[in-house]
TrEMBL record:
Residues 40-397 form the FAD dependent oxidoreductase domain. GO terms for cellular component: cytoplasm. The keyword Oxidoreductase applies. The lineage of its organism: Bacteria, Pseudomonadati, Pseudomonadota, Alphaproteobacteria, Rhodobacterales. The keyword Oxidoreductase applies. This is Glycine/D-amino acid oxidase. It comes from Shimia haliotis.
């Protein structure tokens, strides 16, 4: 597989000390041996691929899912568990200019529809995924950020008919948001979940309705043979009429060739504390079960989990080597101590990193690949794929089934252009990240 980041980032090193890995083993499945046939083949067993598989198999379509590792091995089994609004990094102004106001509005409505979609799946199936948090809270990282947050919340309220809550700086502690922040806004949309329990439940449900899932089965080539796609894996192959690409930040340049240059993996990292006592929570003043993030460009995201452990995540990081992975652990720990100084003594035994995925236009994609028969793809959720990736997976199933019972906004159908610089395109992130770090001061 031709991939654009350091080989370390595609191995198990980045998740060797993951809290999720320690507490919820990944569902294993056998690897592919011999030839399988299916109407639809899906590459990638994360939330995108599994939602496509689940919806298709429930509709009676034969489906085979192949993953190079295990179910949820990619970002879907290592994320922060924020089922929240998001999916694009393009600002609203630019989005309106590029796609028009109506399309922009449709896109924002889809962000909420995606959260509701995941909520519905979980509630309908009665899955226990350690849910908590009533919407999400955004904390101002500097005084000037509060005005922007308040304005954005008012805009979201006018779109969704919700009522956000503004918490001034002097009321943060009393609301359980004690830390180095300058005010907060709570949007009443979204909830937190255990990502591995969610992805494992999706896999089980897809299999229960007939989907076949093979693990440790990397697709090394995806080629056409007449009207069929043929996927070659080390010990077998799959022959299918339609192919779905659900590999997001772990994509490779030639599977299939159309993907080359259209995705940009970017890092996100997480540390998790040991359980915090009530006294420790009160000493810091963070007692809320709200999932939260701050107003930086390279955001910190965090939540007190139901078992009293605190999960703290951070976006950013350019290089993906083992030594940078190790130094990121020190960096994220320093950020954690700066924002929550009363927890300087608290150990953080767990740490992992993983890839989110960006597109050149900073909007996600979900749909049929233009000018390519029977090829579908969904990727580039810009670090917010629990809801948007799940929904995008369902949209691909709908496209295949010819259904339109879920809104599918035009912005999601706009296929990502190629980045400049080919396999060296990650260099483009250097100036962007320097700019973000200046903004975040
Ligand atoms: C540390 C971290 C924290 C995050 N936190 C959040 C959060 O709190 N909320 C949120 O909404 N989003 C979050 N995200 C992003 C979110 O996890 C992703 O957007 C989402 O999981 C993408 O799902 P996916 O199924 O498209 O891809 P992935 O889950 O990345 O799955 C891709 C799969 O494709 C497989 N694959 C790749 N190539 C091949 C091949 N050739 N053959 C076979 N298999 C292949 C990989 O093994 C992998 O399992 C976070 C991401 C990270 C890394």
């Amino acid at each position: 597989m031709k991939r654009i980041c350091d080989p370390f980032s595609y191995g198990d090193g980045p998740v060797a000390q993951s809290f999720w890995a320690d507490t919820v083993p990944l569902p294993t499945r056998t690897s592919l041996h011999g030839e399988e046939r299916a109407e639809v083949a899906i590459i990638g067993a994360g939330v995108t691929g599994l939602n496509t598989a689940l919806r298709l198999s429930r509709a009676g379509v034969s489906v085979v899912v192949l993953d190079a590792k295990q179910v949820g091995w990619g970002a879907s089994g290592r994320n922060g568990g924020f089922c929240c609004l998001g999916g694009a990094m393009m600002g609203e102004g630019r989005m309106s200019k590029t796609f028009g106001q109506a399309a922009t509005r449709d896109f924002y409505m889809t962000e909420k529809a995606a959260v509701d979609f995941v909520d519905q799946i979980i509630v309908d199936a009665g899955w226990d995924v350690d849910r908590h948090s009533d919407g999400e809270t955004i904390l101002a990282h500097k005084p000037a950020a509060m005005a922007r947050l308040t304005e954005e919340a008012a805009h979201i309220d006018s779109l969704f008919g919700t009522s956000s809550t503004v918490v001034p700086k002097d009321a943060l502690r009393q609301n359980g948001f004690g830390g180095a922040f300058h005010g907060a806004v709570t949007l009443p949309v979204g909830f937190a979940l255990n990502p591995r329990k969610f992805v494992g439940s999706l896999a089980g449900a897809a299999e229960a309705t007939g989907a076949r899932i093979y693990c440790d089965s990397p697709v090394l080539r995806a080629t056409r043979d007449g009207a069929h796609w043929v996927l070659a894996s080390p010990n077998g192959q799959v022959r299918a009429n339609k192919l779905v690409i659900a590999t997001n930040g772990y994509s490779s340049e030639q599977i299939p060739v159309w993907m080359a240059g259209r995705f940009l993996p970017a890092q996100s990292s997480i540390i998790v504390t040991r359980p915090l006592s009530q006294e420790e929570q009160s000493a810091q003043g963070w007692t809320s079960s709200q999932m939260a993030y701050d107003s930086r460009k390279l955001i910190h995201y965090f939540r007190l989990m139901p078992d009293g452990r605190f999960l703290f995540g951070m976006r950013g990081g350019i290089s993906t080597t083992e030594s940078v992975h190790n130094s990121t652990r020190e960096k994220i720990r320093a950020h954690f101590e700066r924002l929550f100084p009363k927890w300087r003594h608290v150990e953080t035994p767990w740490f992992h990193t993983g890839f989110v995925c960006l597109s050149r236009d900073l909007t996600p994609f979900a749909g049929a690949v233009p000018n390519e028969d029977n090829l579908y793809a969904a990727f580039a959720y810009h670090g917010n794929g629990v809801a948007m990736g799940s929904y995008a997976g369902a949209l691909l199933a709908n496209d295949i089934l010819g259904r339109s019972d879920l809104p599918h906004p035009d912005i999601l159908r706009a296929a990502p252009k190629r980045f400049p610089l080919g396999q060296f395109r990650r260099l483009l992130m250097y100036p962007a990240y320097v700019g973000f770090e200046v903004f975040d001061l």
